[in-house]
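To: structure subgroup
Subject: Chain for Friday's discussion

All,

I'm putting the inputs and outputs inline so they're searchable in the archive.
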Amino acid sequence: MLVADISGSVSAFAGFTMQLAYAIKSEFSRVRSFVFVDGVEEVTDILEAAADVTSVTHRLNLGTSAVRLDGHSDYGLALETFWERWGGQVRSRTSVIILGDGRNNYHASRAWVLTAIRQRARHLFWLNPEPAAAWDTGDSIMREYAPGCDLVVECRNLRQLRAFVEQLD
């Protein structure tokens, strides 16, 4: 399962995120993809039906339930909604990858959700597009989210993505 932040704070990274999601879908037949801002929506069908990543981006720009309230990131609400709707489908063979900067706009973290996901999943990884030096500054709450994950890594380019994949071997 791939759970990706598509909020404004990661807009520069969103193209990379969608390309990654599209590539993962192309390589693995049973990947489910979700996007969030302050709501969350499964977009697996959109990725499967899309001819290319541009059409995925176009479809997502038409609007999704990933934006539920004010359109500002609320990781806690999005993660809790993910858990309530799809948490029961996380199994011991499931790997969950979260893509996002962890900037929560000073909302409640609800970090317990990551612990709950991790207890059910095979792995829980977090790929953060921000430089690690920016984590836990301003409204970033990565220190609250990191303990619930197997691995949290800076990942904003192909070199870092390759390093992450190599750590999995």
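Points worth raising on Friday:
Helices lie at 11-27, 44-49, 53-61, 75-86, 112-120, 142-145, 158-168.
The domain at 2-168 is CATH 3.40.50.410 (Rossmann fold).

D.
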